[in-house]
Model the fold of this input.
Amino acid sequence: MSEYDSGAYFVRRGGRRDRNRKRGGGRSRRAAGALITVLLLLTAAICALVAFLPRLSTVGAPAPNFKGKTFYMLATGRSTDREQSHVMAQYAVERGGAGYIYNDGEYKIIAAVYDKESDAKTLASVNENSYYFALTVPKCSVAETDARALEYLTGEWYDTVRTAASELQRGNIAESQAEHAVASACLRLKAFSGETSSVLLTAALDVASEYDCPDSYSILSYLHYVHVRAITLAAISLS
Done:
């Protein structure tokens, strides 16, 4: 009897373990299923968020209030040697060019700047060793005061200096008239720089608005120099 009881005991205990395993297995499977469901929902939510965020950032980003403008630099030479570049720049000045040295990894000697590619292309084709390249004052979202300064620089100011240089070169106006027009425009540009909020743009406009023709320049050369310098500094300040 004791053996039977013992046997019955083990049978009964074994039965309870089996039932517990079944019940525990069911709970484990249900828990695993719930976890998988949660993970799938979480993955779907992450995928939807990743797909939606770029559109959200695009929609919410402010539109550029300065539309940007591309200019074309007429260059008369290039060099990686600083001393040689200064010699080449002086030669450009003697021929009536800006002689501005623009460094983008090599020294480029800039004679003039144009807002039409066709003008730069034509002049590069008729001047030996000349070439041109594009330089963009990029579109950007800036303070309204900065946008107004950039619009003036790349619009009215640019046109004033270009007209003064062109008319002087053709002999239609005297040097004093050309200088007066450009110096007045530079004073106004200086006033704009006093209102800008960008430190880099303010610094660029402060330098660009300087007008003090040195003895080593002709008036025509210096007008071209001021023209090129301003556009170059504006592009650098926003890049």
Notes: The longest helix spans residues 2-60.
